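pinned: reference chain
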Amino acid sequence: MTLLVHTFVYDEHGGSRLLDDPEDGSDMAGTEVCRTALWGSGAARALGARFLPEPATGDLYVEPEDVDDFLAECALLHRNAAALAGGGGDRRDYVVARLAHLTRAALRTRTVGGGVLVW
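pinned: its structure tokens
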């Protein structure tokens, strides 16, 4: 199973609708194990992550008003990617690539006033 990242907007009735995301694979936030072993890890939590640990117990909805804070968290984790990866250049590259996907999804929301879903 794969952990995915998408952008969403609310419709006029308050329901959410997923937007078409790039078809280049940049909707991948990791494998299923990343829910707990990476984003929900003690290392991520120790760095102060509050959004990305949420998929350890359920889906993460980053509301439009929280997108800037989510982007700041992605930047923080990017700066500490080696610590999150537990060493090894390949693992660090994996973390950096997934953070890039999460960041791009959040940046896409700025043009439509939407949010980010990680599920």
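why pinned: The two ends are 11 Å apart (CA to CA). The chain has a mean pLDDT of 94.
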